[in-house]
Amino acid sequence: MSAGQDPDNRAIPEHVPRELVHSRDSTMTTARIEQIKPRIGGLVHVSKEHLFDAGTVAAVREALEDRGVLVFPRMHLTDAEQLAFTDKLGTRLNYNSKAPGSGAADEKDVYAITLDKKVNSQPEYVLGTFFWHIDGVTINQPLPKATLLTARKLAPQGGQTEFASTYAAYESLPEADKRAIEGLEVIHKVEAALRPVFEELTEKDLARWRGMSEVMTHPLVWKHQSGRKSLVIGTQADRVVGVPIPHGRSLLVRLQEWAAQPDFSYRHEWQEGDLVLWDNCGCMHRVVPYDENSGRRMHRTTIMGEERVARGNG
Ligand SMILES: [Fe+2]
Hints:
alpha+beta, three-stranded antiparallel sheet, nine-stranded mixed sheet, 17 strands, binds fe (ii) ion
């Protein structure tokens, strides 16, 4: 294929990187991934019948880290199809046993995210998603590589999901700021994530939440095997090791605000049936608050991580 054309001989807009344009096979079915913003977001142009093609899967895997978030509009996947696509992309992870309250989805490895108490007996877990976070950061295992979310029922107001690139956030820091945070370690714990959700917690509640997680110490700057670096921040980040609490928390809040700036973040306005897939190792995410009686319901599947957060070494 010549530069500037896709296999169907359509002109490729200048802003679409050539390496993100893929041909499936000799029938010239194309999964094309278009940039949403320069630093984050990809819109995947593919029909549902070609979603599972090897070429599509390869293009999606390749684009995931670079784009951070990939949007597949109105794919209308069933639970079985969502699981099948998850399995094509990696190794399915069921950490539903760590995420209380669901059980409403048809398949056991699909977690239904809803505030509806008839479906989710412990909606407090979902209220924590109103705040920037990385999934699985207080579980003692490699961070989940990626998360897939499908919109089954929308809220009339709110419910948009926002993503922020923790790669772009780190890479764009002034050099002096990079030097200042290099080598810092951060304690992540569930209590920190519960603080903005509850006015006060009983000892019994605390014990229950602690039982589902571990206190984890992660480097603030994650040096990935690829050589790229990202920030490990979010609502579970409680304090910086060896730094007075107000100073450390202020730093964490400032970095979170930095990462959430418009150039590094993307807000997804859901349509029913949308599939969104994101790189959980290079993005944090949150949801715009919505009413618990809105009926909003999303189905989540998760891909197992391959890499533990390791100390950056300069
Ligand atoms: Fe999440």
